[in-house]
Protein: Copper binding plastocyanin/azurin family protein
Organism: Nocardia alba
Amino acid sequence: MAATLLVAGCSGDSGNAATTTTRTPRPVNTTTAQQHPPTNLTIEVGNMKYSPADATIKVGETVTWKFSDKVPHNVQGIGDKAMGLNSPIIDKGEWSYTFTQPGTFRYLCTLHPDMRGSITVS
């Protein structure tokens, strides 16, 4: 009789459908905007110069340096104010930086110190 109760308890039809909960994983946001902030200014790095060498943007805007020269270059901030400007050495590709504070940020290529530029952020 105990076996009958056990089987009846497990196989009883109460008229209710079994509920199944399926958890859908939360999507990971991998949009381009999340990985790379929108560029507000592009500076070409080629022919041993930054072009434009001097530019003005607004706080919160992003500058992208686009490297396409025969030799590698980088972007290195000059002075305390520009300490965050520190790209790797690149010969082909891009590097971006978002400016969050106003001021004038001077930079150079450490491999070619005559290559200089500045970003004024208002």
In short: The mean pLDDT is 79. The beta strands are 41-46, 49-51, 54-57, 62-73, 76-78, 90-98, 103-109, 112-121.
